[in-house]
Design goal:
Length: 159
């Protein structure tokens, strides 16, 4: 799906381009113990129901977000598949800006009622970020991650 570019301070947030995928994969590998592969990113990139956004400073990709629109009973939900910031650029507010953009982009579809996400139970930094944006913990998926850790399910009403 296409969304407009957004400037947030020194950070330009725009749709991911094919040439960005290697930088996204680099950030993914630096951010997660069980990273998505290049093939997974390629399939996400090609999915018409996905908002795949990157944060750019100067000429460098410093983060990304992936939101997929999914059908629910009588509406849609926005599923935050992944969000990550290059370790060199963390703790500078860029995660907040990418999350704010993800929420804004998903909210443009008037049928989207809520955003959901999974987060590893021990990822306190991410959990704090989601709580700052008023995400509420809904449930737990036991053993969700490859290391056996649980996923916490958080949601945000977008109405």
């Amino acid at each position: 799906m296409k969304a407009h570019d957004q400037v947030a301070g020194d950070l330009l947030i725009r749709n991911c381009k094919i040439g960005d995928l290697s930088d996204v994969e680099r950030i993914e590998k630096a951010s997660f113990d069980d990273p998505y592969t290049a093939i997974i990113f390629w399939s996400i990139f090609l999915d018409p129901k996905v908002f795949f956004r990157v944060g750019v400073m100067g000429d460098s990709i410093i983060g990304y977000s992936i939101v997929k629109l999914e059908n629910e009973k009588e509406s849609k939900k926005a599923h935050l598949i992944s969000i990550a910031i290059d370790p060199k650029h963390r703790r500078k507010g860029f995660g907040d800006k990418l999350l704010q953009d993800a929420i804004k982009v998903a909210s443009h579809d008037t049928q989207v009622r809520r955003m959901i996400l999974e987060v590893k139970e021990d990822n306190q930094t991410a959990i704090e970020l989601y709580k700052r944006f008023s995400f509420v913990r809904e449930s737990v998926i036991t053993g969700y991650y490859s290391d056996g850790k649980n996923a916490l399910i958080y949601s945000l009403d977008l109405l």
